[in-house]
Amino acid sequence: MYAQSFRVVSLWRYLQAALVAIGLWWLAPALAADAGAFLKPEQAFKYSLRIDGQTVVASWDIEPGYYLYRKRLSFSSPDNSIELGKQQWPAGEQHEDEFFGRQEVYRGHVAFALPFRATGDRSGGIPIEIKLQGCADKGLCFPPLTWRSTAGVSDAALPASANGNGNGNGNGVVESTSEEIADRESTVVVSEQGRLAELIRNGSLSAVLATFFGLGALLSLTPCVLPMIPILAGIIVGAKGASSPRRGLALAMTYVQGMALTYAIAGAISVMAIGQAPQAFFQNPWIVSAFAVLFVLLALAMFGFFTLQLPSSLQTRLTLASNRQRGGTYVGTFIMGGLSALVVTACVAPAVVAALAVIGQSGEVLRGAAALYASGLGMGLPLLVVGGSAGSLLPKAGAWMEAVKSVFGILFLALALYTVQGLLPAPIKMIAWSVLAIGSGLWGLSLRSRDQHFAPAPIRALALMSLLYGAMLLVGVGAGSSDPLLPLARFAGEPDARAERSGEPMFRSVKNEADLDREIAAAAAAGRSVMLDIYADWCVSCKEMERYTFSNPAVVGALRPFVLLKADVTSNDSEDSRLLKRFSVYGAPATIFFDRDGRELESFRIAGFVDAENFTRHVGAVHGKRLP
């Protein structure tokens, strides 16, 4: 028994090490990007235009360490009287991009011949519109840019960098788009979800699947997936007949397939139909409460309260449904996996946001759904470990099997409380966790071994710890604490997040687009930037942002120049939906920045939880300076 447990623990440690390695591989470009300053795009990709007969020659001088994508470079003329002919593309070099696969890129000096035919007067020059995207070897990629210049009738035109402010004036100087101007006011970066969305659109399918599987594996180490473990373990515990590692793994794979396919199919359909992730709908308080009741019923079934002989037809149906799902049938397990993906894992991460954005904005349904499916499979890795090991670790028969079922009954009660805690007032939430902890402790102390002696010492120790924790919660709620994870924080001189924000609120609330536009306009008139936090009570990551990020003194200091707005989308009504759709946001949390002119800095968007240290650095980048 202990040898089997040791093998499983060792396997889990190896899996964690592998996932950390994947994370370091993924974060390497970001770490490299922070190692030194990067040039602005007009500095990295200097060019000039000149007319040679009936040809416009575009000459580029690309700085060392930077490159342009061949497939992302295009030329056109906004003047309808000028028609550009077939462009002559010089040969580039092959570059193995870690996200987009093998790509043709341009480095150093390169020139393009653009034949044209003008039907009108061209004494004012030939206006040229250039669309481009490039990257730095150290890992930073610029957003897609649009530059406008005019090739003068003389031999030379001014280079793109000739004008320090980058604004076009029709004399051969780049005319920047609003997106580029916004980016120049700060360090030029591309948001993680933006880069992932570009990978889905243009990367090889194998790179898409591998990257999103790895990101899903990293997401599996967050609270997004942990609530699924007692559900799956409860299914395996309730399996009819002897449970073997092979059967447990098969049930786990079925559960993960239900989860991953639901992510892919429901995500695609929901975004195309209503412009929201399906989890947003399933976090309606009534639906969340209904599923909490379901988890309570499953807990009661684990405790043995329900039998198939109950006279009530309603309870018979509920018992049959829960029995199928805890009894190990593959169809029931698949369904429970799908429901868990919608209800329990209301997570927002750059990978999920990127896939939903590709589906909703560009219509790449299959590629976006494939990315969601791969991330769902990655999120299921810990569940496969649980499934493969549970059959060998759990007792097969006897009184202890009933005790094990009771343990999972307690876990189902905890899961029910976890599901609805965002809807409960803080004191009620603290008391509920206290009752559960004290009840679990008393149950643990009541256990007896086969010879009617006390339960083994480890079980008694856990029971006493549970009783102590329950008592701490009661003391904490009496002192005004609101965080179950830090019940005695008030006694330690550490005010909880709510206390830290007492007095004048740190954020101003906005309910709809009109409120937001009014606040942004007022901030612009005062010459101040804006940060918008999209929040929901049912969102665990939102509460983590409140508790651990926004309350951090360094973050508070970094955000002082900003007008801070909060949009609470808990109710998920029509106004909330319109606000989310405006920014193509598919869930909470999301953090959106606006410059002093009221324009969104889209490249600086954040989806999901970010810790205080990285958030402070991110805000520093928005300010246009690097922080130590």
From TrEMBL:
Annotated ranges, domain Thioredoxin: 482-624
Catalytic activity: [protein]-dithiol + NAD(+) = [protein]-disulfide + NADH + H(+); [protein]-dithiol + NADP(+) = [protein]-disulfide + NADPH + H(+)
Membrane topology: Multi-pass membrane protein
Gene3D superfamilies tied to this protein: Glutaredoxin, Thiol:disulfide interchange protein DsbD, N-terminal domain
InterPro entries recorded: Cyt_c_assmbl_TM_dom, DsbD_gamma, DsbDN, DsbDN_sf, Thiol_diS_interchange_DbsD, Thioredoxin-like_sf, Thioredoxin_CS, Thioredoxin_domain
EC id: 1.8.1.8
Compartments in which it is found: Cell inner membrane
Keyword Repressor included in the entry's annotation: no
Function: Required to facilitate the formation of correct disulfide bonds in some periplasmic proteins and for the assembly of the periplasmic c-type cytochromes. Acts by transferring electrons from cytoplasmic thioredoxin to the periplasm. This transfer involves a cascade of disulfide bond formation and reduction steps.
Recorded family membership: Belongs to the thioredoxin family. DsbD subfamily.
Protein name: Thiol:disulfide interchange protein DsbD
Provenance organism: Hydrocarboniphaga effusa AP103
Gene behind the chain: dsbD
